[in-house]
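Sequence design from tokenized structure. All designs in this work follow the same two-part layout: the structure record, then the generated sequence. An example of the structure record is given first.
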């Protein structure tokens, strides 16, 4: 197909459930491309001699090559090309912000709409999973070098897969009873089905990766003890499981959750399937979600599926400044989430039983830009009002627990509490200890954490082989 014919093909948007239906269930919102649509969308790729799209991918997927295979109908081959550098393609195709990474740099986007790279990555990965046994070949000679991975989130899983393919003996230490990290406990079922995450993780089993569950490093064992047990290198990637609150009056009333607790109880502990699973989560009639990022959108869209009368998204800036993906904002609005922009909570009121019943807020206006480049929200004196609510989810960020650093020596942290790492190798200030994901940078996306994990894996391999 010549370039002029390619330009005539309109971008195909991924189909979704009707909003009025999907807000009543936890089935996946996006239903995916069929074969014909995937081929037509992949044919839009111009196969540029200088593929700028690849520059936007933290794990350097060969995007033109996998798109070319889809265009030919070679769907399994397309997925295998993706897996050369990305061990979780079905996950990334669903939750990564392609619109600000690979798709943003697609040349078609300069005068029209970019190729739907994310949807096609998802399609190829899903096709391979549904139509093959996903056979993993191991060509590397065993090195018998023991490597420990602390945390089974995106960074940890990526590093583990990379090192296992090189023949190392890899063990992942996970504090929870199941692998996946934020992919399992944080991202809702309707956005990322857990069966897909588990299937992706099974590829690590085939590579020989071992898992040690219910193991909290810093309590069950320590970094020092892992070295003493014969591990030659360690990756610290426990994620951001420590909640952040605003320290407002009344914040200890019942009915006020951190986003971590709310989403973990729903996702990991299956509260959305209560009473089939016996871990309920309380969700009242009027729910307020504090924040404007992807986690806030996940919490709001999770809450609306529990059938309250109203769910409010309370954000101190405007929608234009929200860090959440445009797709998530759009879906939240479609599902009936009410956006209260330029609004910030200042205190909570409770009833005689200690349950939250109201949230006092203040109106904001935007002032000069702050260090993030966004205009700083400034309170408007005398604009206070009370919002009647009985459930609050605080989703203003999270940070990593410092337990690992407190129980082992030699790992420096910066003033924000993140581990100091070499940006080229991800090695910390302690020899042989590497770090990736949220503990090594401000809350990272899934794909950026995977990029760090891949970079760490390469450096760890070189480190243990040199040793």
């Amino acid at each position: 197909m010549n370039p002029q014919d390619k330009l005539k093909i309109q971008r195909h948007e991924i189909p979704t459930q009707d909003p009025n239906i999907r807000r009543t269930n936890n089935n996946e919102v996006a239903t995916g491309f069929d074969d014909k649509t995937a081929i037509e969308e992949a044919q839009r790729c111009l196969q540029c001699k200088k593929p700028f799209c690849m520059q936007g991918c933290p794990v350097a997927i060969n995007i033109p090559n996998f798109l070319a295979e889809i265009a030919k109908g070679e769907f399994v081959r397309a997925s295998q090309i993706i897996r050369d550098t990305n061990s979780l393609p079905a996950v990334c195709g669903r939750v990564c912000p392609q619109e600000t990474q690979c798709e943003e740099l697609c040349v078609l986007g300069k005068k029209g709409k970019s190729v739907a790279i994310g949807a096609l990555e998802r399609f190829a990965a899903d096709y391979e999973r549904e139509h093959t046994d996903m056979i993993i070949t191991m060509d590397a000679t065993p090195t018998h070098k023991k490597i420990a991975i602390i945390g089974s989130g995106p960074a940890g899983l990526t590093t583990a897969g990379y090192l296992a393919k090189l023949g190392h003996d890899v063990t992942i230490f996970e504090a929870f009873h199941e692998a996946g990290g934020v992919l399992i406990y944080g991202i809702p079922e309707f956005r990322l089905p857990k069966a897909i995450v588990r299937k992706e993780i099974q590829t690590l089993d085939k590579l020989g990766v071992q898992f040690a569950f219910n193991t909290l490093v810093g309590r069950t064992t320590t970094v020092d003890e892992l070295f003493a047990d014969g591990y030659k290198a360690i990756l610290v990637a426990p994620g951001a499981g420590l909640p952040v609150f605003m320290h407002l009056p009344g914040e200890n009333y019942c009915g006020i959750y951190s986003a971590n607790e709310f989403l973990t109880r729903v996702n990991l502990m299956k509260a959305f399937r209560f009473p089939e699973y016996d871990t309920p989560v309380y969700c009242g009639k009027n729910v307020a979600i504090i924040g404007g990022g992807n986690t806030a959108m996940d919490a709001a869209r999770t809450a609306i599926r529990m059938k309250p009368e109203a769910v409010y998204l309370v954000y101190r800036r405007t929608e234009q400044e929200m860090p959440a993906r445009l797709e998530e904002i759009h879906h939240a609005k479609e599902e009936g989430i009410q956006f209260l922009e330029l609004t910030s909570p200042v205190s909570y009121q409770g009833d005689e039983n200690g349950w939250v019943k109201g949230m006092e807020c203040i109106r904001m206006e935007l002032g000069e830009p702050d260090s993030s480049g966004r205009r700083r929200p400034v309170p408007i004196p005398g604009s206070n009002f009370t919002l009647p609510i009985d459930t609050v989810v605080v989703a203003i960020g999270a940070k990593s627990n410092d337990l690992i650093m407190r129980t082992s020596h030699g790992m420096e942290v910066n003033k924000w509490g993140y581990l100091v790492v070499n940006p080229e190798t991800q090695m910390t200030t302690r020899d042989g200890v590497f770090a990736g994901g949220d503990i090594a940078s401000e809350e990272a996306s899934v794909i950026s954490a995977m990029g760090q994990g891949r970079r760490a894996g390469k450096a760890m391999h070189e480190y243990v082989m040199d040793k």
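The domain at 146-241+400-466 is CATH 3.50.50.60 (FAD/NAD(P)-binding domain). We note this feature because it recurs in several other targets discussed in the main text.
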